[in-house]
Amino acid sequence: MAQEADQADPPRAARATRVRGASASGARGASSRGASARGARRTGPPAEQLPVARIAVDVPLAHLDRPFDYLVPQRLAASAVPGCRVRVRFAGQLTSGYLLERVAASEHPGRLAYLERVVSPEPVLSPEIAALAREVADRYAGTLADVLRLAIPPRHAGAETADGPSAGPRPTGTADGPPGGPRLAGTGNGQPPESGPRRGPESGPRRGPESGPWPEPRPGPGAEPGPGPGPQAGPRPEPGPWARYPAGPAFLAALAQGRAPRAVWSALPGPRWPDEIATAAAAAVSAGRGALVVVPDARDLGLIDRALSRALGPGQHVCLSAGLGPAERYRRWLAVARGTVRVAAGTRAAMFAPVRDLGLVVIWDDGDDLHAEPRAPYPHAREVLALRAHRTGAGALIGGFARTAEAASLINVGWAAAITAARPTVRGCAPQIQAVGADAELARDEAARSARMPSLALRTARAGLARGPVLVQVPRRGYVTAVACENCRAPGRCTFCGGPLALEAGGGPARCRWCGRTDPGWQCPACGGTRVRALVTGAGRTAEELGRAFPGTPVVVSGGATVVAAMPASPALVVATPGAEPRADGGYAAAVLLDGWVLLGRPSLRAAEEALRRWLNAAALVRPGASGGAVAVVAEAGLPVVQALIRWDPVTHAERELAEREALRFPPAVRMAALSGQERAVAGFLAAAVLPPEADVLGPIELDADAPVQDRHRRTPGAGDTAGVKEDNVFSVDSGADEALGPQVRALVRAPRSASIPLAAALRAAQAVRSARKDPGPVRVQLDPAELI
DNA sequence: ATAGCCAATGTG
DNA sequence: ACATTGGCTATG
């Protein structure tokens, strides 16, 4: 090939390289050329076919986030395949990277270096994942290298060789502990529609739940040959539990025909949701395609694992979770990448699992903050899966007992349809739910006071214990001090930007957590009150107290380090923190949801949504009302969020939530970015950023040193903490080693969703400028930040 | 990041 | 005259 010869021609390339230094020191130039010549001799000639490799180099710098070309030496011609891991010399250093593609010639005017080594010919970065990672990096104003670190597990050589169906993927093995470690609380934001090419439901918003027609057949990638059932667009699948939803059978049928239906699914209370997910996965498999299921934690993964085994038979799927060792983890991941298995389930990190010929992505309980990746660039599983479904033409199922505002938005813009059950079906599955305000009953009833439980709650528990296990949900304490109107208890909102008001640790007036302003003339928009009160409740609940109130009844605590997975059907009190509730055999006879206050009082944008989600998740474990299942929630019955629980109506609540956020210009109605770092670094960032004209900046405001920035371990005991001492669930912002750069601050950038792409691009460019200039002090850029506080 | 280059500074 | 250090630039 003439082109190749041209590219590899040393004199021409060398001349280009030496333009700068030529006049200054000819001798040095000559000697460096000599060294390169020796290198070339050592590595031999370049490969005859496609001698140029485009490499994604693993460097952390934003301004180097682009492919670099290298020459493939003859000896690596066969092993340097697209997607493989390589080692290259970059800026004089041996660095790892991924080979994106082999091409005939390079655009680079200078001289190319040779690939140093092919770590392994295993193509671990498929074109689909490479493109997805690029899109995710762009979306979140991050770098490709960061995303690839999340997407591709560390290599374990043993797993690559000891391969094959012989050692074939064992289906299960989720025997890992509770997910530990720090992570962000809160949400993300998901919205492919305004970004990508419009595919899928052309039809306008608001497809009713009964609507039959699902989107067109997939435009997706070519069918991958692979093991598993043949790709006949086969018989109508058994709807099974999906028959309970009017739109369910049509959704399944569309999957089985290889089409790409997308749905937000409000699951009926009860234990059948894993089977429903597995049935949907089986439908995609029956069309000859793969499926990917992402759940919040290891316990849910265990449920999905068993359901998939039932639906697909043994050995047809793998579970990917953090608790596996590196070897096992890589082995299972490889089975997915090689197409040995077509169905993968897992926790958050599995969102990037390279399932071949994807036909369906599923996310369960997308409101759970575990779905928000805590490492840069902080992608959210819902968002990533939606992007994947969008770009590969796969179906999507976003399910849960609750519904997030983001999911509601996907319906609103017509990206997904709703799958809900009819009201009578819902009523038949849900337990009977009653609410009781904390103050009123607590004061009157002496027995209740000693148990620190309103008497209705006490009666509910007692009646339940006669018939089986009773769940007591206890929220964690110690959140930031939100404020509410002293008179009507409406949450305090900033007069200027609408952000949540909160009291600072050191005292002083209520201050907006977003823009930092205080308003001496604050007035409650609801009742006109002018005074605010703190919303922290002091009472901690303990298992011992309950034990005293119910002598002789076994008390089990589940939370934090001791998460109990399941309970027998016999009477017992189960005290659990949200997310750590064990399943009970046959369902709980009753549940008591304590201290609704604390959840509702969090100065979070999503406080109500999150409270409802946690309540619904607990209440879903209780038997139907017809079988005596009862729930008592300690919260004011008049609050809309409490009404939504009582009526089991997450849909209306999510719609109202979304409408409210649209009115107030909160996510997901707008796109938000959080910039955090030391004062001068953030100021420098903002100065370097050329933001889209529609964007506006809130703040920066100082983060007080002991502000709870992250909700570190939500699933910690709380239940066993009598005095409220123990470890707290907040940690201080590191005030930074560099005093010169000032205190930690955070600014928010808000832009309409139509400006999402330019906003992310501008933030990425600002990072690039800063990293090229070597500006001191890191600035963390978070799009759709987990918690707006 | 960091290797490499160059200029300026320090030392014998 | 030479070594050392610090700033600057590009990274294939």
User: Can you tell me the overall shape?
Assistant: globular
Strand order of the largest sheet: 8-9-7-10-11-6-12
Radius of gyration, whole Å:
28 Å
Low-confidence parts: 1-41, 164-213, 217-233, 536-541, 706-737
Percent of residues in helices comes to 25-40%
User: Between the first and last Cα atoms, what is the distance in angstroms?
Assistant: 60 Å
How many helices?
Answer: 23
Mean pLDDT: 79
Structural category is alpha/beta
| Beta strand count | 28
Largest sheet: 7 strands, parallel
Strand portion, in percent?
A: 15-25%
How would you describe this structure to a colleague?
By secondary structure, the chain is an alpha/beta fold. The strands form seven sheets. Strands 8-9-7-10-11-6-12 form a seven-stranded parallel beta sheet, with helices on both faces. Strands 13-24-23-14-21-19 form a six-stranded parallel beta sheet, with helices on both faces. α10 (326-337) links the parallel β8 (317-320) and β9 (343-346). The chain is globular. The N and C termini lie far apart (60 Å). The model is unreliable at 1-41, 164-213, 217-233, 536-541 and 706-737 (pLDDT under 50). The chain binds a DNA duplex (12 and 12 nucleotides) through β1, β2 and β3.
Main attributes of the structure:
seven-stranded parallel beta sheet, DNA-binding, disordered N terminus, alpha/beta, 23 helices, six-stranded parallel beta sheet, 789 residues, globular, 28 strands
